[in-house]
Amino acid sequence: MSNLDRQAALSVCGGRGFVVAEPVRELLSPRTVRLGESTEVRRLLPNLGRRMVGAWAFVDHYGPDDIADEPGMQVPPHPHMGLQTVSWLHQGEVLHRDSTGSLATIRPRELGLMTSGRAISHSEESPRSHARYLHGAQLWVALPDAHRHADPHFEHHPKLPNVTAPGLTATVILGSLDGATSPGTAYTPIVGADLTLTHGADPRLPLDPDFEYAVLSMSGEVVVDGVPVLPGSMLYLGCGRTELPLRAESDAGLMLLGGEPFEEELIMFWNWIGRSNEDIVQARQDWMEGTRFGEVKGYDGDPLPAPELPPVPLKPRGRVR
């Protein structure tokens, strides 16, 4: 998923300065952003005062949108570096193409995981013949320095492991939860899980006290550790938890995001994560000149131009205690 904002803002991420070492209940409200011609998303990360959760650095929630008579998602070819993209659907389909030659249709509860490494480009679109509704989330995971120059690649995992309890099914998208591990490649201690709750369920989900966590509400009415969380909003939970109490006031869908706090200081600009001003300047030059990021073949349209860089050098000031 791309950040299509033509007035792209610098986000300084990473470091442990804003990591809360004890359990908290910090409700994050979304910012509405237009994505392409017909899709509107609710951006939860980066958020004012909260830039990352573990290695999760970007979270968009969209839908449910009625696209029966619309083209649906139409995101032209655009570049990424220094991160992984996670495509997750509750309804609809997304056709993924990228510069490594990958072509895949992502369907509900299937993992589309793209590791950009040093450079990749991709497009995302609703297939010409598509379901009526589109509902999902797009997320980025920051790559640690040791892996940010890795070879780009794409993974499609239609089958993922589940953890179950009365009234709860947790699908492990990335990392591990309660002994179940996703087949998706992870480069930091991390967890991403899709939680489906039935009306009246009140499970207690086991957590790792060394991780920081957040919960994104996708649908329904749910209370997370005593806090009602409406669809399209996110509750930041801090660290130090061994379990998470949930209560479903209706059938509901959530995403649990967590991981060890990401210590490295980052610069996130447009669709790139780097460590220095030079990283971002070079990425923009390479994209605009048509080098390094490759070509997405088969997409009917032009690639996205990069936004202008800020007039001052970008600095990874980070989160310093």
Automatic annotation (TrEMBL):
Chain ranges of the Pirin C-terminal domain: 193-292
Positions of the Pirin N-terminal domain: 41-141
Alphabetic keyword roster: Iron, Metal-binding
Cofactor dependency: Fe cation
One MF annotation (Gene Ontology) recorded for this entry: metal ion binding
PANTHER family from the UniProt entry: PIRIN, PIRIN-RELATED
Record family assignment: Belongs to the pirin family.
Name used for this protein in its record: Pirin family protein
Organism: Streptomyces qinzhouensis
High-level lineage: Bacteria, Bacillati, Actinomycetota, Actinomycetes, Kitasatosporales
